[in-house]
Specification:
With about 260 residues, the protein is mainly alpha-helical. Helices cover about 65% and strands about 0% of the residues. The chain has helices at about 1-35, 60-80, 85-95, 100-115, 115-140, 140-150, 160-175, 185-215, 230-240, and strands at about 215-220, 250.
């Protein structure tokens, strides 16, 4: 009896410890999301991102939360028991994914213009997830049926040209994304989309590395005679970024011809 009692007590301790760790993890995750600069719209003019507050580690939590939010929004639209209308389907679809759009917009900008190894790792990790997320929307049967029903009666609806164009835009995008494929083909497509997304991210990383490797490194400022002061300063700054003081880097901006 004593052994049995001790065993029960040990199990209870493990359970309570696990609950405590779960609560701690939830609180930590909540704090990360709450303090994330992407959670609220920027107060800068035109909603421009405030790069002084954005860190590389902010992207993945915001992407994860953005996907979660949009999936919840999509489920609400698709599972709405009321007949599909322009207002409860098209407008709500257009409004969905605001957080995800904010973070992926900035992320795409940085990875194409000012990337680094950490961002490249994030890009390769997130690419298949984003592909799956996209498929969860475009290959959602319930959602597409609603869109298709609105599309089929679009000529009888009292809509302005812009609204009618929006219906056609979404309907065509869903069709091109595979919404009309049979279930088994959709599953194949999902796997192909994930594979393609990862390969595209890897290619982008390797292309950027090759572009950087093709830069011209100059160690004598006299060899830059003919360039403007701004161009020379930029070349010097590029070198300092690469930890190469007293040198100048002219990046490869075109693989077949260079302005310089």
């Amino acid at each position: 009896m004593k052994i049995k009692s001790n065993l029960s007590l040990f199990i209870l301790i493990i359970i309570f410890a696990g609950c405590g760790n779960n609560d701690k993890n939830k609180n930590e995750k909540s704090n990360i999301i709450e303090n994330n600069p992407f959670m609220k719209e920027s107060t800068l003019p035109y909603g421009a991102p405030d790069f002084t507050k954005i860190r590389d580690k902010d992207f993945q939590p915001a992407m994860e939360e953005g996907r979660r939010e949009q999936i919840a929004e999509i489920k609400k639209i698709a599972n709405n028991s009321e007949p599909a209308t322009f207002e409860n389907t098209m407008i709500q679809l257009e409004k969905s994914g605001q957080l995800l759009a904010r973070v992926t917009g900035v992320f795409g900008l940085l990875t194409s213009a000012n990337t680094n190894p950490e961002l490249q790792d994030i890009e390769e990790e997130e690419a298949p997830k984003m592909a799956s997320h996209s498929d969860s929307i475009f290959l959602n049967d319930k959602l597409f049926q609603k869109i298709e029903s609105i599309y089929e009666k679009r000529e009888t609806l009292t809509l302005d040209p812009e609204s009618k164009k929006l219906i056609e835009y979404y309907y065509n995008n869903f069709c091109m994304a595979g919404a009309k494929l049979p279930p088994e083909e959709k599953e194949k497509l999902k796997e192909l989309n994930k594979e393609e997304a990862l390969l595209r991210a890897k290619f982008s990383t390797r292309l950027m590395a090759a572009t950087n490797a093709g830069a011209l490194i100059v160690d004598d400022i006299k060899k830059l005679k003919g360039l403007s002061t701004n161009e020379i300063n930029t070349a010097s700054l590029k070198a300092k970024e690469k930890k190469m003081p007293k040198k100048f880097i002219i990046p490869l901006s075109n693989t077949t011809q260079q302005p310089v």
